[in-house]
């Protein structure tokens, strides 16, 4: 096992061990997921004391709860007695967490508050001993309602870590006429048999869209051709967009940043998906509510920010225009769970939320033609890398032609540049060798 992980991911190429070696995966859980700021929940899920969600910091299961003091705490979902998972539900409300094995009770800040038949310990255990409380994340912070936690005691602040990605979070919130968003309802969870990085590499890869998703492009065009009024919903426009010629894909702006973050710009040029026209009555009502809340110039500036797939390294992808989020949960070197969810915009017509749910279903549900295409690719890549005769994969498209941008990042010379992948592996090298 190398002590210099840079040898496995020099600029422009990556060794297959990065995807298949359990020792590399374990090091990633310690050095990347053990140090980064990771999204664990949204404050709308924790509006009242006692409300909680369960989350993960890397492989480590956690509980995120609002305590009676009004603060949000993030602590290990593992009993300090015999290691049992304390809470199996994904979300809910409790005034205490009781271990289902031996009944140890913990407050909503993780502190131990009760041991059944405690006299059996003959005074050798003090329930007030902090070591018996559920282990807390070293740092917890909140940006615009998005709650992040880190196991690292020291490191950059949350806003420093997010860098220019704060604008994506700002834009997601500001698209609500009421100035707030809510994470409501459920979402989708899908497991694939591949490394977590495969999904992140794919997020801003424009080369694959017209090839991998050719069948959904054809189906979308057939539906569009038969629409009498010419009205296309967001998912249909998205499906058709995947079929753009590669020459037009090169017109899309591809951005990469220090820290591994990236996004696409200039993805949507026309139609109701731009949210800046009155062609659709629902969009028109939404647009008017935005103008009333912000004034016309500011409202159009918010709605006109044309971006897609804001990737916050290492495991979060945001789409403000569609109120969507994807969160990756690494399980093992060759197993990953993808959580997909959407937000409600306070003050917006309810139909906007309904459209967001439909868009989520069309793109990220188990029945989606898009997601199933991608997952098939991830599964097959993992199988091939396990059995490959060639050790290296290539991520050099556009290398040497990326251009410095005034936002502190770089922009690819063409939209099909693999700049986002190189940004991710630059961050990977920095964190793995820290």
Q: Which SSEs are present, and which pair or pack?
A:
Layout: E1 13-15, H1 17-20, H2 22-31, E2 38-42, E3 51-57, E4 60-66, E5 72-76, E6 91-93, E7 97-98, E8 105-106, E9 112-114, E10 139-143, E11 146-150, H3 158-162, H4 166-174, E12 181-183, E13 188-192, H5 196-203, H6 209-212, H7 214-225, H8 234-241, H9 246-249, E14 253-256, E15 262-265, H10 281-294, H11 296-303, E16 307-312, E17 316-319, E18 324-332, E19 335-345, H12 350-364, H13 369-387, E20 392-394, E21 403-404, E22 410-411, H14 419-432
Antiparallel strand pairs: 1-20, 2-11, 3-4, 3-6, 4-5, 7-8, 8-9, 10-11, 12-19, 13-19, 14-15, 14-22, 15-16, 16-17, 17-18, 18-19, 21-22
Helix pairs in contact: 7-8, 10-11
Kindly describe this structure.
This protein has two domains: 38-150, Rieske [2Fe-2S] iron-sulphur domain (Rieske Iron-sulfur Protein); 167-432, Naphthalene 1,2-dioxygenase Alpha Subunit, Chain A, domain 1, CATH 3.90.380. Helices cover 31% and strands 23% of the residues. The chain has 14 helices and 22 strands. The strands form five sheets. Strands 12, 13, 14, 15, 16, 17, 18, 19, 21 and 22 form a ten-stranded antiparallel beta sheet that branches. It has a four-stranded antiparallel beta sheet with strand order 5-4-3-6, with no helix packed on it. Strands 2-11-10 form a three-stranded antiparallel beta sheet, with no helix packed on it. Strand 7 and strand 8 form a beta hairpin. The model has no long low-confidence stretch (mean pLDDT 90).
